[in-house]
User: Fold Carbonic anhydrase from Sodiomyces alkalinus.
Amino acid sequence: MTVHTRYRYELALCIPTHPPIPASPTRRPDLRLLAAGCSDSNSSSHSNPPPPPPHHHHHRPTFSSSSSSSQPPSTPTSSEPLAMPEEDITKYLRQSHARVFEHNRAWVTEQTKKDPEFFVKLSAGQKPEYLWIGCSDSRIPAEQITGLQPGEAFIHRNIANLVNNIDLNVMSVIQYAVRHLEVKHIIVCGHYGCGGVKAAMTPQDLGILNPWLRNIRDVYRQHSEELDAIPDESARYNRLVELNVIEQCRNVIKSAAVQQSYSKNKYPIVHGWVFGLDDGLLKDLNIGFEDMLAEIQKIYNLEDS
Ligand SMILES: [Zn+2]
Assistant:
């Protein structure tokens, strides 16, 4: 089998922002909002899904325009451009933006009703037990699938949950989470059907994504013997998702912050998990943290002497 046949995937399916395997009943981020948030565990974007705001019976924005000629356009379900008149696009964008603020106000009301002290506690500080390093994929809301509440998880997400030692972002997150927040667990969570991993299996120039995806291509190279022995393409893809998680766990363990904290405190423990889009279940890959740490320290020992 040549490299090209082994890696052949249709490019259109492989761009990470358009994951190839939609979660059951298509659940696209119909707002098309790209949220850039803080990792702060108190500013969860996913814990307790906000109830629909009053007067909104559908997730889709409703149109209040008095113009009866324009029907409310339906929520887009594909990566096609919005198929509606220009005037409606403007309304759609305004309303899909406003909807988030309506949900936010409803969430504040709900939280305050459940616990009048909720925001007093939230503003007092954070002491999360978990650092979550996951994929940016919109279908894997870390807190929602784990039942964690605001304040319980420090979150970092990027395409294909990579931990690259020259990525200042993820390395700062790890250092801060370990040394200052003193998290007890670090979870690297990948997912089957990961568009980033699939794109890395595509032998094509993907521009700015090349250096990022090369980390996954390197994982393939390191494990090519095992992967090439898997005849079924989707089984091989699933295994690469798992191996990528395991390699990113190794990268977390290579950091000085983790090694030094573990030798002093016996935490954090690093875990590798994979989320299944088709059943919603988390799978623990049982990476064997202590053995992995011992193996890594033969070469990458950064413990204080
Ligand atoms: Zn992904």
Q: What stands out?
A: The chain is about 40% helix and 10% strand. Confidence is low (pLDDT under 50) at residues 1-28, 46-73.
